[in-house]
Amino acid sequence: MSWPRRHHWQAEGLRLRRQPLAWMAFSALFLVLLASAIAVGLDARAWRAAAAQDAAVFTAQRAQAAQRLQPPGPANAIATYQLGRGELGGTRMPVRAGLALGVQRLDVLPARLKASLDSRHVDARDPGPLRNPLLTESGLPGLPAMVALLVPLVALLLCAGWLQEEREQGRLGLLRVQSTHGMAPLLIAALGWRLLGLWAVTAAATLPALALDPGASLAVAMQWLGALAAFCAPWVLLGGLLSCLPGSGATAMLAALGLWLALTFAVPAGLLLLAEQQAPTPSRLQSIVAIRAAQHDSEEREQALAQAWYAAHPEIAAQLPAVWPASFAVRALDQDLALEPLSVERAESRIAQAELLSRWSWLSPGLALVLIGEVLAGTDVHSHVRYLAQVEAFEQRWRDFLLPAVMARQGLSAAQLAALPRPGPVAAP
How far apart are CA 300 and CA 163, in angstroms? Predict the structure, then answer.
């Protein structure tokens, strides 16, 4: 007596619930992803808490700077110059509602730049605390990366050898007899339950990351759930296709492992190599040579640069020959002007590489999921390039305000300090 089709789903669901391997795999996946989600959720909460304190920190630092100001004169010009190089010009990269899905990028990207009277392009030292260079360069895996690594393994473990196992256990003939519509409905029901279970476990384990982030929204949560469904489906389907191949279950699992390695590691590496070839970034050696050339040229023309600045600002009485800090300030302007083409080339190269990776990311479901997480978090390449442009615009206002006081060798007054420019809170687009 054959089973009606509606009973296929009931039978396969019951079999999956009675499978110890499925419970162990789902439990391990849930615990690991939950630990990762809690960690990134707390990191996102800490970032937003620090961002909320930026206004209070700026006010406190400005009050401290006011105490260091002196009567107008060369000493006060030096104090103003030091103020212009300090932390009052600090900025913070704007993020989006899904910060927890890409917060790890903030440990790798320059996300806390500051406007300065010095050249940021020449002095590339990180003003923050000392960190492990290895972790700073590589970054710890974020939540989307953990999902991209672990979920395919569980999906392939549960799906890749399903039909082979039935045949090896002697149950395949019985299944064929019980279904009048062939094996397709049974296979669809088995894969459907596995897809539903995989998606539910992954969603339940990762949503706490957004719940811990006070800036998260329901819209981001829904987008993330949709991205998880789109990510889990190909791996379950690939596992089902592998289970249909002739051979043993061990052969299917070995093929599944090779497929996981190829799509998770080899394809992204190949795409990254292709992106670097299509849109190469300026080499480190090229950057060093350009920086040294800009430094040498500005040092050679120091007095000429100061004279040109005073000529362009006739409202400021010329103080020639220029001495420190005025001589250093005009050097920084000239160095930034000389290095601007290199910065523009680097930004254009990053954008071109990101667009190529995004266009071909469908070849690697894991890469696509990580890129989606970065976009939802506001830590993707396009967002960071926009942040760099915002820093450049703020730094121009910063210098326009402070530089005349330094070049006049008088410094700022307390009343002028109250009008010190500061970057307003900018939301990521």
Answer: 77
Instruction: Tell me what pLDDT residue 191 has.
Output: 86
Helix (H, G, I), strand (E, B) or coil at 191: helix
- How many CA atoms are closer than 13 Å to the CA of 326, on its beta-carbon side? 29
- Quote the CA–CA distance of 269 and 36 in Å, as a whole number: 24
Express each pLDDT in 163-186 by its tens digit.
656 555 545 545 554 555 556 677
Look at the chain and count its residues: 429
Cis peptide before 110 (omega within 30 of 0): no
Q: Residue 325: is the preceding peptide bond cis (ω within 30°)?
A: yes
Give mean pLDDT, residues 184-212. 90
What is the spatial distance between Cα 80 and Cα 405, in angstroms, rounded to a whole number? 8
Percent of the chain residues topping a pLDDT of 90: 61
* Token pair 């392939």: residue: 156
Which 3 state secondary structure label does DSSP give 114? strand
Global pTM value: 0.88
Tokens 């703020």 appear where? 394
pLDDT at residue number 137: 44
Dist. CA 94–CA 370, nearest whole Å = 19
pLDDT of residue 135: 45
Residue 133: the pLDDT is: 46
β-bridge partners, 114: 90
Q: Which residues contact 337 (CB under 8 A, 6 or more apart)?
A: none
* Cβ-contact 225, 198 below 8 angstroms: no
Return d(Cα 401, Cα 396) in angstroms, integer: 9
Nearest to 387, CA basis, from 115, 126, 111: 111
Domain residue spans in the chain? Answer: 1-429
Scanning the structure block, which residue is given the tokens 């100001």? Answer: 69
